Structure formats: structure tokens, C-alpha cells
Amino acid sequence: MAVRGVGIEQSLRDERLHALAAVIEDCRACPRLVAWREQVARERRAAFADQEYWGRPVAGFGDGAARIALLGLAPAAHGANRTGRVFTGDRSGDFLFAALWRADLASQPLSRARDDGLELHGCFVTAAVRCAPPANRPTAAELDRCLPYARAELALLEDLAVIVCLGGFAWNAALALHNIRERPRPRFGHAAEYRHDGGPALLGCYHPSQQNTFTGRLTEPMIDEVLARARELAGLPAR
What distance in Å separates the CA atoms of residue 27 and residue 34, rounded to the nearest whole number? Predict the structure, then answer.
């Protein structure tokens, strides 16, 4: 039995993700982040002066049957804080979605807006913090208040097998999400792997920021290798 060609279980899972997104998008728990995201949305960057900014928290998006999740830091002030979709509308997203497309995890290599037709296949993209933080640096208290949203999203991804952590901040957030307290602490590194009982594998990847991609610290072959390994860990066919 199916609902519009989609299995009932997947349809219900998508509905729960949609409901959770609505809760996330209404959050005003962190006064500093609320003030900053709304200030940026009012003042705008000159290049986007004619656009209406989202200026709200940003939920994750993707395939409700995802085997792979990608976890970032937070929305960019003039990227997702403008477009309303994580990693959409900035150079980091350009690099990331092109890689997902090459890995056959995205329907197109570019993402410019929430309604641009991009679909993710077998993966879900989200962030540890949902509001654009000043200087791209959320506080520890802000992370603690926000992390339950990521925990709730990932819990709804019942087929999840691996989390690709985009940067050390995301790696540490993923350790906190799964209450991993072992010593020595699992260390972040590009292509680092960590497996634990009862949860998805963690796979490290340098963040696709311009600071990393413009300097060659993260190259296309490097992220392609990480996504190929993620597909392997997730049990997806090799490209």
C-alpha cells in the first residue's frame, strides 16, 4: 500500500520531519542569536539588498529515508540565514552540493533557494546550531540549547548509518549528541572514523568553508573520497 507512490512509513516520517521543522523555525531561545540573525536580515548585504532574508532558525532537509547525514556548524549570515535552507546560497554550499551531486546523493550540483528543485537522495543535511551566530561562533550555552533539535531530527532518520561531521565543531557536537565520553576523546581529522555501539558511525571531513577550499586544505578529490567512504559505511552501492 502506498501514498502517492511513497511508502506509508516514509510518508509518516516525512510528516514528522516537517512538523519538527516548523518547531525549529519558530525558536527564540537564544536572545543573542535572535538579535543577530534579525539584524542581518534587516541590514542585508549590498549584493542581496533586493532580496527578502529568511532571518529565522534553519531546519535540516533531505531524504527521510537517509542512510547518511551531514552535520555542519550553523547557518551562514548571508547564506542560509538569507535563503532559509542549510548550506544554500553561499560558497560553502556550492562546494558541498557539487560534491553531493558527484556522489549521486543530490539531484543537481547547485543550490540557490529553498524552491530551486534540489532533491537529496539517501542523505540529510543539517547543523548543530540553527541560527547564524556573530562571527560564526556560537557559545557553549547556545549549542547546548540548540543541540536537541539535531538529536530529534537524527532520531527520525531510522535508517541512519553514518554522520559526516563537517569540521571539528560538528564532530564534537556529534560526540555530545551520542553522549560519547570515553577517554582519550575521539579526535577529529579529515577522514577520521569513529564507531560506537548503538549509533551511527562518525566520519570526519574538513568544513567546506572558503578558508579551507580556497587554500587547498579541502579539495574536490578529498571530499569525494569522504563521501565515497560514507556510501560504503552506509551500505549504498559504490558510484
Answer: 9
Q: What is the 3-state secondary structure (H, E, C) of the chain?
A: CEECCEEHHHHHHHHHHHHHHHHHHCCCCCHHHHHHHHHHHHHCCHHHCCCCCCCCCCCCEECCCCCEEEEECCCCCCCHHHHCCCCCCCHHHHHHHHHHHHCCCECCCCCCCCCCCCCECCEEEEECCCCCCHHHCCCHHHHHHHHHHHHHHHHHCCCCCEEEEECHHHHHHHHHHCCCCCCCCCCCCCCCEECCCCCCEEEEECCCCHHHHCCCCCCHHHHHHHHHHHHHHHCCCCC
Neighbour count for residue 181 (Cβ, 10 Å):
8
Euclidean distance between the first and the last CA atom of the chain, given in angstroms as a whole number: 31
Identify the CATH homologous superfamily for domain 2-234: Uracil-DNA glycosylase-like domain (3.40.470.10)
C-alpha cell, 195: 564507531
Question: What does the alpha-carbon distance between residue 118 and residue 156 come to, in Å, rounded to a whole number?
Answer: 21
Going from N- to C-terminal start, the domains of the chain cover 2-234
Q: What percent of the chain has pLDDT over 90?
A: 88
- Amino acid identity of 63? D
- Assess whether pLDDT exceeds 90 at residue 181: no
pTM for the full predicted model: 0.94
Q: What is the pLDDT of residues 145-169, one digit of tens each?
A: 999 999 999 999 999 999 999 999 9
